[in-house]
Design brief:
Strand content: 15-25%
Helix content: 25-40%
Oligomer: single chain
Number of domains: 2
Structural class: alpha/beta
Radius of gyration: 21 Å
Largest sheet: 8 strands, mixed
Number of strands: 13
Length: 354
């Protein structure tokens, strides 16, 4: 019976249009190098997010690596990141000879601005974790006129600030298309920029065979690593892009409803009324001093002590219980279940914790 139920769930979610597209492309073996539909995917992203240029990559990590290379920062450049930065981003930064610093986030997912060291940074890498917008204007006095900004939009796709998509507030923004992101190709990543030189630089570094590559006459002519997206991933992600706004809007309302319920249960969490949230990944974060064990609850498992990675804190105020008490409710489970069931399960694991 369970297998039959799962089969009907698959049929219900079956997308005939994307299946036919993939079938035709595979039949024609049109899935290598730069088919027209990859260009179409990048152009669609440009229009959706109001960006001059978009370039697709094999992963979000590859897109970030390419962004750093294109900016051509000097050795020992001072780079500022959040204590809530995804591990693969940190690992790429560590491969460059940068001096890396981090700022802390409080339980409202806002920047802790007390006792910040007074120095100027060459690059700010801004992450908006779990789909929560973190206002970086607090850091403006530490960013010089020549400070570059990269935004990791992997967990905040479609976030609008002052009527502009948040990717517009950076020299380069990137997003992962891996796994169960709001816009997903199963694997892949993209960058957005309004700077043509940075865009062309990334093509020359990583995209052999691209019609805008200066080394097009040389087979495989690039200046670094080949990091382009698999064309089939762009087809899958394009299908997600078409339905993104509708799905994202519904999910935002569902998540707000869940946070209202957590308020009634006196559970501490970062969401406040009218807070900007969007494009979620991983799950709904909340804090608990009690240990919680449940199938749908995950313990925060990014890096919890950046100092161990030879990354320096810019503030003397460290909240050691922050990571220890940070949990999140699995997002894919939230997507698949009705709000009434979600509330009942929340009540159950909170009751068990106490």
């Amino acid at each position: 019976m369970l297998k039959l139920i799962n089969f009907f769930k698959i049929i219900k979610g079956f997308n005939l249009r994307i299946f036919l597209k993939l079938f035709i492309v595979i039949l024609k073996k049109d899935y290598s190098k730069y088919p027209d539909y990859v260009d179409g995917f990048e152009n669609s992203l440009c229009k959706k997010f109001n960006s001059e240029f978009c370039l697709s990559f094999s992963s979000g990590t590859a897109a970030f690596y390419s962004s750093l290379l294109a900016l051509n920062l000097k050795k020992k450049s001072k780079v500022l990141i959040s204590s809530l930065t995804f591990p693969s981003v940190i690992e790429i930064l560590k491969k460059f000879d940068f001096d890396i610093y981090f700022f802390n986030i409080d339980r409202n997912f806002e920047i802790v601005d007390e006792n910040i060291n007074d120095q100027e940074y060459d690059l700010l890498v801004m992450t908006h974790p779990f789909g929560f917008y973190i206002n970086s204007k607090i850091l403006d006095s530490y960013l010089g006129q020549n400070t570059k900004i990269i935004i990791d939009a992997s967990h905040s796709q479609g976030m609008i600030i002052d009527k502009e998509d948040h990717i517009k507030f950076a020299d380069i923004s990137f997003m992962s298309l891996q796994g169960n992101k709001a816009i997903s190709g199963g694997e892949g990543g993209v960058i957005f920029t309004d700077n043509q030189n940075l865009y062309l630089n990334m093509i020359n570094n990583h995209h052999p065979g691209h019609k805008k590559n200066q080394n097009l006459e040389i087979a495989g002519g690039i200046k670094d690593l080949k990091l382009r997206i698999h064309p089939l991933a762009s087809l899958l992600a394009l299908e997600d892009l078409k339905s993104f706004e509708n799905r994202n809007g519904k999910l935002i309302e569902k998540i707000k409803n869940i946070y209202d319920h957590l308020d009634k249960k006196k559970v501490q969490h970062p969401y406040q009324k009218n807070r900007v949230i969007s494009g979620f990944h991983f799950g709904i974060p909340f804090f608990s001093s009690k240990e919680i064990v449940a199938d749908v609850i995950k313990k925060y498992n990014w890096y919890t002590n950046l100092s161990d990675l030879n990354i320096k804190s810019i503030s003397s105020n460290d909240n050691k219980s922050f990571f220890k008490e940070l949990y999140f409710i699995d997002l894919e489970w939230i997507k698949k279940n009705k709000i009434s069931k979600i509330k009942n399960i929340i009540d159950k694991f909170l009751e068990d914790a106490h």
